[in-house]
Design goal:
It contains eight helices and eight strands; from the N terminus they run ααααββαββαββαβαβ. The chain is an alpha+beta fold. The radius of gyration is 19 Å and the shape is globular.
Amino acid sequence: MGRAYEVRKASIQKTGAARGKIYSMYAKEIYQAAKNGGIEMESNSALKRLVERAKKEQVPADIIKRAIDKVNSGADESYIKNTYEMFGPAGSTLIVECLTDNVNRSVSELRAVVNKCHIKMGNMGSVSYNYDNLCIVSFKGLDIEQTLNEMIENDIEINDIEEENGNIILYADPQNLFKIKDAISKKLPNVEFDMDEITMLPKEKVELVGEDVELFKKILTMLDDIEDVQNVYHNVDFKE
């Protein structure tokens, strides 16, 4: 099964989490993207992508609109994106992304998880070197050869390509995400992207057994309960 399965599964798990946290997360991300790049989506690709993703996750339109309108309302909020690296039980690792207006609060809540679960916080780079930072784009309508031709014609370098259940899945450096989507959209004007994510994929995975499995699930649950936590990536292979 392809690597995209893990990203899709994580997305499904996130969709099943508390709706309030998802709404809050997108409201902060959309506001920050609009503040940084302007409120016009045609000239702010980051904002456009966030709004598209929010709609896919059924974030109400009024929440999206309020987040964008806030930029012109005189509000001056500022959110910082920080990444933290952790060592879990039996060779497991985690990368935690936070979007926050209070770094001290985020660090304090993360350290509470570390202390309660008896795991360790790593230095920057101590975990992430074992992960690939990639964008993943998935769609239907072309075969592998046709897709590769489009990438060559548009001078887009990709890391890998695979086909899964009729979907073409492209892996590339994160900065190529919008280039890939634009190239495919020109070829297939009505294309719907099943996935357009920027993610961290582990180079190798580990399997946990016994109490380590339960501990790791507890870690994930506690991280999910922290409002500032935006994404969690890990290298644990949970057998279905």
